[in-house]
Specification:
mainly alpha; SemiSWEET (chains A, B); membrane (chains A, B); 86 residues; 4 helices; Monooxygenase; homodimer
């Protein structure tokens, strides 16, 4: 049982990790120092994890990686938006 | 078997995702626009995944998250190094 709680907390931390960056970029409108390829790779990875979770019918994997996919694509959108203004 | 390959590729993508950011920050020495809290949360998450993997004796989880832990701590170190120079 303990390891399930551990896995749940680990999943939440890695899922919401991009939030502070989203807030900072939203506030500062500055993204010059950030690599868009990091978020492209992350999107590719969590996207595949969602497909993996669907095949295995594993809801925690689908949910955590689905949220990650939304947060990381929002970050990529912000970068496209503000990159042109840098 | 296919989903194992899918999970393996997904794991590699999410593990190496921070590499382009590491290279960019190393080259530009500029980290002002990056949120250190993103990497603190990531470190916490992948650190817990390593402990989770050890408890469950799951080597793929230990390996991918162990590498992530090293890459993300290197990124945090770079940020501490260059932050003082910004």
């Amino acid at each position: 049982m303990e390891e399930q709680i551990l896995g749940f907390i680990a999943g939440i931390l890695t899922t919401v990790a991009v939030l502070p960056q989203l807030v900072k970029s939203w506030m500062t409108k500055k993204v010059m120092d950030i690599s868009p390829f990091m978020f492209v790779l992350l999107l590719g990875g969590v996207g595949l994890w969602v497909i993996y979770g669907i095949i295995k019918n594993d809801y925690p994997i689908i949910l955590t990686n689905g949220i990650s996919f939304l947060l990381n694509s929002s970050m990529l959108l912000l970068m496209l938006l503000y990159k042109s203004k840098d």
